[in-house]
Amino acid sequence: MADRGGSALSLPDDCPAHPDPILALNQMGSFDWDLDAGLFHMDAQAHEVFDLRPDEYDGDPESLGIRVPIAEGRRLDTLVAQAIKDGSENYGAYFRLRRRDGTLRWTHTQGYIRRDETGRPRRIIGIVRDATRELSDTEARSEQAAQDAARREQTNVVQLTTAALAHARTVQDVIDVLKDTHGLTHLGATSLVMGLAEAGRIRLVAEGPAGSFVPGTLVTGIEEPYPMSEVVRTLTPRFIESPQEFAERYPILWPNITDLKITAAAYLPLIVQGRPIGAMGLLYNDRQSFAPEERNVLVALGSSIAQSMQRAMFYEQEKDLATNLQQAMLPRTIPSVRGADIAVRYRAGTTSGSLGRDIGGDWYDLIPLPGGRVGAVIGDVQGHDAHAAAVMGQLRIVLRAYAAEGHTPGAVMARASVFLHELDTDRFATCLYAEVDLSTGVVQVVRAGHIDPLLRHPDGSCRRAPVEGGLPLGLSAEFGRLDYPVSTVELDPGTTLLLCTDGLVEQPGIDLDDGIQILVALIADGPHDVRDLADHLIEVAEERGGDDDVALLLLRRRGLDTPHSGGRLQQHVAPGDPEALTVARHLIRAAVRTWGAGARADEIELVADELITNVLVHTEGAAVVTLRVLTGGERRLRVEVEDASSALPRRRDAGESGVTGRGLLLVDLLTDAWGVEARGRGKCVWCEFLVPGGD
After folding, report:
1. Which pLDDT tens digit goes with each residue over 362-377?
2. Would you state the pLDDT for residue 352?
3. pLDDT above 70: percentage of residues in the chain
4. Is the dihedral of CA 7, 11, 15, 18 positive or negative?
5. Alpha carbon of 548 to those of 349, 359, 448, 505: distances in Å?
6. Average pLDDT over residues 73-83
7. What's the CA gap between 106 and 498, in Å, rounded?
């Protein structure tokens, strides 16, 4: 070590070679080196520094070789020669002396080069002093600084790891954080193993690096002689500081890991609230011991990892429960529907909030109805929790029940809203119910605060089908607005009806209308098959991520093989519901036109209306009207109106001023055949119309 700078001590050119009080006070010796004479004069303090008696030194610098090791002497000679050659005024250096007892001591010297007027060096005066304590203190400070830096680095790794673990939601997330380059590898660990305690056994959940798995350790008993079993059993960490110690303590495990060149290991129990949930092992190949501070850091890290692991385990348990609950609430299977291709999909959101929140109230349903009709439902209950899923399940059941009872779409929605209002919950729901007649292609749609359906045509084009709507379910009953208007949409063969929840539409920074337009373009460019299209839309939703759930239902009407043969339409008309009668008239007219009987549409509609009105007026019950196309011989269209009354209709003549009594006369006049049949608990009035065949 060399110091080429100046000294705080200023010595005059004619400094005498005898003890100076200031130098002696600071335990420094002085020297005067006459370069011309080659003599090196030292004072008494300098003799003491060199551990020489006056009679042992004759002034010849060479005689100092008995105290200065050869390598140190050469280094000093080179240093002095370089300073003289460079024209320096001084030099300084640390060197080692071998004292009389053979010990080596650090010494410091500072020399001042004096030159004549020509620049020739004539004299060097300077000081020497014992620097052992100084360098020891410096070395100790350096060592302490290195230890402090290492401790700060370890603490920083713990802090970074703990911060990363705060975002870990699953057990695999925790493992990934620990294996990451910013994880425990910064502590110098070569390999990581981790196991979770389950019913008296330890199940290995992580091991690394690749190829380090020990056969037979995937599941081990807590009583078996393995390190992780021991720390779980004793709740005490184990620090192994040599291969010999490892081999002695764990003779079964050691032969299987000798290829990893392990020199030390730390096994830590993962303890939460005094109960072990597992263990973690850190293996090293460049460490021989663990300082107390390092042990404390590792134990603290183990505690943080245990808390994160417990939280992740709770999350996975709650997620499984929530997922199972939601799967139980959704339809287990979707019935096949003659004349339609159906595809349904569900994607859970990825809410980053509390545990178990990857569940929502989105649902879909498909309800087979009489007469070749089918009800399609899509809905979304407010919230993302198990309560939302429970409300969703109840709503799905009552909607299915109301639809199967034969209520009109508007009545189905109104009754569901009243049900949700009376359910004693603060949740509301948006919903869309579409009743599809696959024989005619007529779709009756009711919307309760939900987004509009979409239609994809056979040529691939897609458009939004605007539907008049009402308030969300639960709110309409609260505000006394139970009117849900019914809109009609025609579904041509090959056209697909798409119902979805807003999770497929909403995107951050994009308003709802723009989101629907993006979805429309996505559908238009998507696959033709409804199942492939559904998969494609869900894949896009997965790529976007997002917190909201996605429920999706696609129904594609197939082209009928015999479009004018075997057609059938059935509609339930409830008493006291003028809207239902209006809808029935519309459906009858649409069906008659679709079946190629448009020439007699007015007659058929008038007769059906008369028969339905008779039921509503005279029986005070509901009417079920059925239209069918009969083939075989002459092609006929049959109208049947059923009710629950056993009283048979009577034909009577009306007076000139009478307003009733002409119904059956009208039926007899306009139809080609009619009659009455008993139907169990009620009767059926039927009539037939001859209609031309052809397309």
Report:
1. 889 999 887 678 999 9
2. 47
3. 84
4. negative
5. 5, 9, 19, 10
6. 91
7. 89
Q: What is the pLDDT of residues 561-595, one digit of tens each?
A: 434 445 677 787 888 777 778 888 888 888 888 78
Tokens of 458: 């056979």
- Own/partner pairs for 80-84, CB < 8 Å, 24+ apart? 80/111, 80/124, 83/4, 83/111, 83/113, 84/113, 84/121
Whole-number CA gyration radius for the chain:
48
Q: What percent of the chain has pLDDT over 90?
A: 25
Q: How confident is the model at residue 359 (pLDDT cuts 50, 70, 90)?
A: low
β-bridge pairing 121-130 and 275-284: unpaired
DSSP β-ladder status, 121-130 and 28-34: antiparallel
CA distance linking residue 679 with residue 645, whole number of Å: 10
Region 60-64 average pLDDT:
88
CB-count exposure of residue 437 (10 Å: 0-12, 13-18, 19+)? buried
pLDDT at 187: 65
Q: How many CB atoms lie within 10 A of CB 173?
A: 16
Predicted confidence (pLDDT) per residue in 88-144, tens digit: 999 999 998 998 888 888 899 999 999 998 889 999 999 999 888 887 777 667 666
Angle between helix 409-421 and helix 578-594 axes, rounded to 10 deg? 140
Name the residue with tokens 């109840």: 394
Averaged pLDDT of the chain? 82
Q: In this model, does residue 522 exceed pLDDT 70?
A: yes
User: Taking 50 as the threshold, does the pLDDT of residue 657 lie above it?
Assistant: no
Q: Is the pLDDT of residue 30 over 60?
A: yes
Q: How many angstroms separate the CA atoms of 197 and 204, rounded?
A: 9
**How far, in Å, are 39, 81, 82, 95, 124 from residue 35 at the CA level?**
7, 12, 15, 21, 7
C-alpha to C-alpha distance for 626 and 559, rounded to whole angstroms: 22
Closest by CA position to 547, among listed 584, 521, 508? 508
Q: Say what the pLDDT of residue 653 is.
A: 59
The Cα 109–Cα 67 span in angstroms is 14
Angle at 620 between CA 614 and CA 622, to 5 degrees: 80
> Can the peptide bond before residue 237 be classed as cis, meaning omega within 30 degrees of 0?
no
Residue 353 above 70 pLDDT? no
Q: How far apart are CA 525 and CA 680, in angstroms?
A: 53
Lookup result for tokens 């024209």: 87
Q: Is 171 left (phi over 0), alpha (psi -120 to 50) or beta?
A: alpha
| Contact call for residues 173 and 312 (beta carbons, < 8 A) | yes
d(CA 391, CA 326): 11
State the helix-helix crossing angle for 132-165 and 171-179, rounded to 10 degrees: 150
What is the rounded distance in angstroms from the CA atom of residue 688 to the CA atom of residue 608?
A: 11
| pTM beyond 0.85 | no
In whole angstroms, what is the distance from residue 362 CA to residue 347 CA?
9
Residue 119 carries which DSSP code? S
**126 closest CA partner among 150, 146, 152, 108:** 108
Degrees, nearest 5: CA angle 436-437-438: 100
Reduced to 3 states, what is the DSSP secondary structure of residue 17? coil
In the three-class reduction of DSSP (H, G, I as helix; E, B as strand; rest coil), residue 313 is classed as helix
Distance CA 561, CA 631 (A): 14
Q: Which residues pair with 367 in a beta bridge?
A: 375
